[in-house]
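Bit of a strange request maybe. I'm writing a small parser for structure token strings and I need a real example to test against, not something I typed by hand. Could someone generate the tokens for this chain?
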Amino acid sequence: MKNIFEAPFLIEMMRTTANMYRLGYDERNGGNISWMLPAETVGEYLDLDNVIRTIPTGFDASPLKGKIFIVTGTGKYFKNVEVDPETNLGIIRIAADGTTAELLWGFKDGGKFTSELPAHLMSHISRMSIDPENRIIMHCHPDYTLAMTQVHPADERAITRTLWKQMTESIVVFPEGVGVLPWMVCGTNAIGEATAEKMKEYRIVLWTLHGIYGCGRDMDEAFGLIETVEKAAKMYMLTAHLPKANEITDENLVDLAARFNLNYRKDFLDI
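Reply from user aminoacidic:
Good idea to test on real output. This should exercise your parser:
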């Protein structure tokens, strides 16, 4: 059996959580990540027949039964993952009943997965129907995106147009735009269900006055989506009160879409 602490997926989780904390995206115990791992990969490092304990998931995740995830813990600080991954992370498998998670590794202090796990699992189910290779769900609280949701209409078309027009890369990175939810109580199945529904159409969902849900095939894709939205939101917040001398036009966005062969939301443009 290989050393779990040398597993590339564990090292990547440690690097990513440390980076997100350093950037201020995940203050205190804010934010969470879940990553669906191939059973054959995990089996190189863990005895998959050794279930440490079981934990209720909080909803019926039967479409994911048998799937294995590495996930951040509830009440855990991202800054501590690198120092003590076995306490702050866990590797779980969705049991045959769909409502129980089998702990295979981690949470050694008796802890459990993030309270947002139902929302993560619901979004994983949605994304699997769109892209079976989608494996990452990531939630965080970037400064400028949160600020933008305080002053900008929480309308998907309007906020997507604003973000697209902040910098050239925006429409290239998220051509389908961004989904937007109104403020909702976090940690509930209701917000999880609403997010999962948006995830059928968007890879990024903004939680007004709370944060971002993003997804991807790997860490780079999921985090790249989030940091691009955050950069665009930053440009907006830094310049929204100033007169515009230059602006990316709808015609410019059409040209970009043609250049990069993008399948973008044409109905979001005034053309």
